[in-house]
Design goal:
- The chain is α+β, with helices and mostly antiparallel strands.
- It has a domain at 42-215 and 270-277.
- It has four helices and 14 strands.
- It has a six-stranded antiparallel β-sheet. A six-stranded antiparallel β-sheet has the order 7-8-4-12-2-14, covered by helices on one side.
- A hairpin with a 5-residue loop joins strand 9 (160-163) and strand 10 (169-173).
- The longest helix is centred in the C-terminal third of the chain and has 18 residues, at 232-249.
- The chain is globular and about 65 Å long.
């Protein structure tokens, strides 16, 4: 074993550890060119990821081994006080169980993202994160200059919950290895993802894949153009989203942030795109 008694020895030891380490790569979507990939990580059990994504970005969550549980929270990158509102995400579409075509709505009635493909059908928008997931979400948020007060309840993918006739909540587990969920982002967002157990299902968690890409040559898609939901409630969210997007593009540049400002007052430019596993 390399001695760490000196700086040179410690450096050699650290480099030998890095050389021996193996980092698992996520499964990439078929047909997506490598240059279109903007973010790709395999998140271990208990790990988290945080990244700022632009409008039109596609996101794939994957459950390669059948035991992942992705706790997902979205906040507007340019206005982080606007964030995912799980209650409206369930209420507005008249649907408690997320699936293809389901919008992820903010507390301002805008579609931050939409589920555009889902071969799992085992998700939960009712229970929120487990204590371990909540703690990891705080760490992920801190990497983006956000504070605990900036966090709202998250939606969970790959571990399902159903409501019984008496109102009780029952965990339904996952769909097995290889299940995926695809999202499309409608407004620039900060994406926080934690891979941890579900509050109603403490089965050991396995690795989670997270891949983001922006298809070359495609315009940034407005909600409704690629989703299959044409319900009036969804169209209202589309209107709200597009109105905010076009207004923000013509807005004056944001002043430099005050170094003493709280997390919600800091601009996206002050944050970095980071991953912690």
């Amino acid at each position: 074993m390399t001695s760490t008694a000196s700086t040179i020895g410690a450096r050699a030891h650290a480099r030998s550890q890095e050389a021996a380490a193996t980092v698992a790569a996520p499964a990439l979507p078929a047909g997506v060119a490598p240059e279109e990939i903007t973010f790709a990580r395999r998140i271990p059990a208990g790990g988290y990821a945080n990244v700022v994504l632009g409008r039109g970005t596609r996101v794939r969550l994957g459950d390669p081994h059948g035991g992942a549980c992705a706790h997902v929270l979205l906040l507007r990158a340019d206005a982080p006080w606007e964030r995912l509102n799980v209650a409206d995400t369930v209420k507005v579409p008249w649907q408690a169980y997320p699936g293809a075509g389901h919008p992820l709505l903010s507390d301002q009635g805008r579609a931050l993202a939409t589920v555009i493909a889902d071969d799992s059908a085992h998700h939960d928008a009712l229970c929120g994160p487990s204590p371990r997931a909540r703690q990891a979400m705080r760490l992920a948020a801190a990497k983006q200059g956000l504070e605990p007060r900036d966090l709202a309840p998250s939606v969970s993918f790959f571990r399902g919950v159903r409501v019984e006739a008496d109102g009780g909540l029952v965990a339904t587990g996952g769909a097995g290895a290889g299940a995926t969920v695809d999202l499309i982002v409608h407004l620039p967002v900060t994406l926080l993802v934690v891979n941890a157990e579900h509050p109603l299902n403490d089965t050991a968690v396995t690795e989670l894949d997270l891949v983001a890409w922006h298809p070359a040559g495609e315009p940034d898609a407005a909600p409704g153009r690629t989703a299959h939901d044409t319900d009036p409630e969804y169209r209202r969210a589309v209107h709200n989203t597009e109105e905010a997007w076009h207004a923000s593009r013509s807005a004056a540049p944001t002043p430099a942030p005050d170094s003493t400002a709280s997390g919600t007052a800091r601009t996206t430019a002050a944050r970095t795109k980071e991953i912690h596993v």
